[in-house]
Write a structure and sequence with these properties.
Layout (H helix, E strand, L loop, with lengths): L15 E11 L5 H12 L9 H27 L6 H20 L5 E10 L3 H10 L2 E8 L6 H15 L7 E4 L7 H18 L4 E7 L3 H5 L4 H16 L6 E6 L12 H10 L4 E5 L8 H4 L1 H12 L4 E4 L7 H13 L10 H13 L5
Helix pairs in contact: 1-2, 3-12, 6-8, 6-12, 9-11
Length: about 375
């Protein structure tokens, strides 16, 4: 195996610690040309689609990649921001705010905060190379998914581990598995709902919509379904809701197989047919607004509900750059950085450099 070329090293250079946020990903533009490579990378991941590879290859390349890019491009165009994809824009902002807050709390710590996307750009390989060039010898991987799933958290870890396998001098790595029941995350989500209700009043029903997965993932041992339900229950308890005032549903079903139920679309139509006066929807599994929240829920979900006979529909935005969420993310990060935040000893580094030169080092 040929290892990647290591960055040039100078003895006495302080080691740094990196915090790497990893999100799902996004195409570079809302066009069919940009969607095709993005969808190919995403849907070729065996963690995402667990269909035998030869069969799936024919379906993906023969049908899906010839039809879906154009349709998906139109959906992305409907939510695209002036600065780019909503997911990328919000993740970028979250990264900058986390970096600022960490620098205020531990000003002397040699920290680098960055983000990468599992699919698309900035890619995990490119960002890891950038961190290596900055002499980051310790990396904390923070998946931007509160609930663990093999198709989200695990595949992000897979890609990072795969890149470390190519490195001769691999950094230390820590990963965060989940934070679906983290008190600060729950509190920020509940307060986000309260703030909306303060301005707009309360609904008849609060729908908590999580991204769906095929039903077989639960049957094979993926804890995602259970973690979503725990998150929903804790949010409802924080809001003081009774069991008939909220529902937990799952969105984004793809294909003909059974997925986790109840489905968000079917539930919204059911509530509409019942002439529900007002429904509010939140998506607690998404930390940043994206196609699945802004187009699938805020646009399509509203149409489904109201076309079936429902009244008011409110989509409550994701946590995005809320200060209480950034504080929660900061605490989560610091809790997992323990032992890695010591400031470098300049004298010891210089002594080490001189000893290395005495032993023949050129730098």
């Amino acid at each position: 195996m040929a290892y990647l070329v290591e960055p040039t090293y100078t003895h006495g250079t302080p080691e740094k610690t990196a915090v790497l946020l990893v999100n799902l990903g996004t195409p570079d533009a809302p066009t069919a040309a940009a969607l095709r490579p993005y969808l190919k990378q995403f849907l070729s991941d065996p963690r995402v689609v667990e269909i035998p590879k030869p069969i799936w290859w024919m379906i993906l390349n023969g049908i899906i990649l010839n039809v879906r890019p154009k349709k998906s491009a139109l959906k992305y165009a409907s939510v695209w921001m002036p600065e780019g994809s909503p997911l990328k824009v919000h993740t970028e902002r979250q990264t900058a705010l986390l970096s600022k807050q960490l620098s205020e709390i531990v000003p002397d710590a040699p920290l680098v905060v960055d983000y990468a996307m599992r699919y698309g750009n900035p890619s995990i390989p490119d960002v890891l190379a950038k961190l290596k060039a900055q002499n980051c010898q310790r990396i904390l991987l923070v998946p931007m998914y509160p609930q663990y799933a093999a198709s989200t958290v695990a595949t992000a870890c897979d890609e990072v581990f795969a890149q470390l396998q190519k490195m001769r001098n691999a950094p230390a790595l820590r990963t965060i598995r989940h934070y679906h029941d983290d008190a600060a995350y729950i509190a920020a989500t509940a307060q986000n709902v309260r703030d909306h209700w303060t301005l707009h009043g309360r609904p008849d029903m609060l729908l908590m919509s999580f991204h769906g997965l095929p039903r077989y993932t639960l049957e094979k041992g993926d804890p995602y379904h259970c973690e979503c339900h725990k998150t929903g229950r804790l949010i409802a308890e924080a809001l003081g809701l009774s069991r008939d005032e909220y529902r937990i549903t799952f969105q984004s079903r793809f294909g003909k197989a059974e997925w986790l139920q109840p489905y968000t679309t079917a539930t919204l139509k059911e509530l509409g047919k019942a002439n529900t006066r007002r429904v509010d929807v939140i998506c607690p599994g998404f930390l940043a607004d994206c196609l699945e929240t802004l187009e699938e829920i805020a646009q399509e979900g509203k149409e489904d509900f109201q076309h079936a006979g429902g009244g008011e529909f409110h989509y409550i935005p994701c946590l995005n750059e809320r200060p209480d969420w950034i504080s929660a993310l900061t605490k989560l990060t610091l809790d997992n950085l323990q032992g890695w935040l010591a400031s470098p000893d300049a004298v010891a580094l210089e002594q080490g450099r001189l000893r290395a030169i005495e032993l023949g080092a050129q730098r």
